[in-house]
Design a protein that fits this description.
By secondary structure, the chain is an all-alpha fold. The chain is built from nine helices and no strands. It is flat and about 65 Å long.
């Protein structure tokens, strides 16, 4: 048993039972080991959850970085969409990710920021737009995943449309992008 195996099994456990029910006791049983042996790899459950969050984000953190010739607007939208898709890949993916610090991803974040600034986006607005888009995405996925896990109630009244989560996400993302475009220096 190595650290990678523990994280992989922990993520599979997450998908099976949800974040509320993930425990080191359940994980140890799943791995066929005694619970204290997990502490060789992770000193605390918090350390395990952080490693799980980092591993769960791998599809997004391995996505191609922007190239200088890329249109910053298209890249900004694609980056947010990639983040959303990655969070949706795991049960409770947004809850697992929320509150984590992307320590292993700081170089990539700096490169993304440098791309936006080189594209003409003022640095402070680029920082705030990336933060807003990230938090917006996590919030959208939190709501979507909570709805998927909620027991079905009596239903909505006929005059209340069912929420299309992807359409709502795209609309909100367009608003963030539109707001960011308002801060772009005018070109003569």
């Amino acid at each position: 048993m190595n650290r990678e195996t523990v994280v992989t099994e922990a993520l599979d456990l997450l998908d099976d039972v949800g974040l509320e029910t993930v425990s080191t006791r359940r994980l140890a049983k799943r791995l066929g080991v005694e619970q204290p042996s997990l502490y060789y790899h992770f000193k605390t459950k918090k350390d395990l959850l952080a490693a799980m969050a980092e591993a769960a984000m791998a599809p997004h953190t391995h996505a191609a970085l922007p190239e200088p010739e890329d249109d910053w607007r298209n890249w900004f939208l694609d980056n947010s969409r990639s983040f959303r898709r990655t969070l949706l890949m795991r049960r409770d993916g947004a809850r697992l990710h929320a509150g984590t610090t992307p320590a292993g991803d700081l170089d990539r974040i700096r490169r993304k920021m440098a791309f936006l600034v080189a594209s003409g986006v003022p640095e402070q607005q680029a920082q705030m737009a990336m933060l807003a888009a990230g938090r917006f995405t996590v919030g959208c996925v939190l709501e979507e995943q909570a709805e998927a896990d909620a027991p079905k109630a009596g239903g909505l009244p006929d005059d209340v449309p069912v929420l299309d989560h992807e359409a709502a996400f795209e609309a909100g993302l367009a608003l963030i992008l539109g707001g960011l475009e308002q801060h772009m220096p005018s070109r003569s």
